[in-house]
Design brief:
The complex is a heterodimer. Chain A is mainly alpha-helical. Helices cover about 70% and strands about 0% of the residues of chain A. Chain A has one domain. Chain B is an all-alpha fold. In chain B, helix 1 runs antiparallel to helix 2. The chains are: A mainly alpha, B mainly alpha. The interface between A and B is medium-sized, with 22 and 29 residues.
Amino acid sequence: MAEAKNYMYKSWWKIASVLLLLYTFTAGFLLEVPRLPALQETIRNLYFHVCMWFAMMILFTVSVVNAIRYLRSFNLKYDIYARHFAVAGIVFGLLGYTTGAIWASYTWADPNKPAINSFSSIARDPKLIGAAIALLVYFAYLILRDSIQDMDKRARISSVYNIFAYAMLFPAIWILPRILPSLHPGNEGNPALDVKNDISGNMRMVFYPAVIGWTLLGVWITTLKIRLSLLKEKKMIS
Amino acid sequence: MMRSLKKIITLLAMTVTSCVVFAQDKKVEMADTMRSNGRIYVVVAVVITILTGLILYVVRLDRKMSKLEREN
């Protein structure tokens, strides 16, 4: 079994993920953060909300790489990889969206007006619409892939679509929100990476480990699903 | 496999307890300097507990998968 020596079966990076997350959850709450108006302690959401999007980007990237690998080799294994990484990316994207909604409703909303008034201006934010479009494009990927019965056709069509979805991701979450006025921080540069305006240098001590930890957790859950799929596939053939 | 798993669990348990101990150590001096309404360590303990629970769940799932793969 050549599969057995695969990274999916190693445990060192799983342990690393756990340690990094434990570090994130302690240092993330205890370390000193800049005192900013309106944000206050919610700046700590950087270690959680922003990491969801970073993990989503990385998982979608792995997904599209596997889609291309499938198209180059026509090995169905890579199509299974691509599908599960996309699902994990969607899960992280949804978590990012939900946490962002909670965060925005306490920092962007005007406390002097009824919540519904602020909602109309928040819901109109280009960053939110862009993220929603990106996620919907990936929902369509799942619907497309799972609606085709023939295995080879399914793999080929969904792999090609995966590349289009990835190409759509960039205008939707990186380009469009930057050229339109947005409440979301980081319009002039990169949100969460700008030490001068957004975060202090020592927040990076938690932020980067957090990104790696969350991403590895996503990869871990994905590999479990991949292993289950490969096992099912094997059972079907034998 | 079992041995390495035991090692991992011990490591985890030690990390968590060390965090809790760390929290209790600093509670007195930190709570008033860091926040006017302290008790953030309670939150940290709760969040860490939830995280540990979820991680243990994934670890168990991983082990079950490995077992299934060995049997097939």
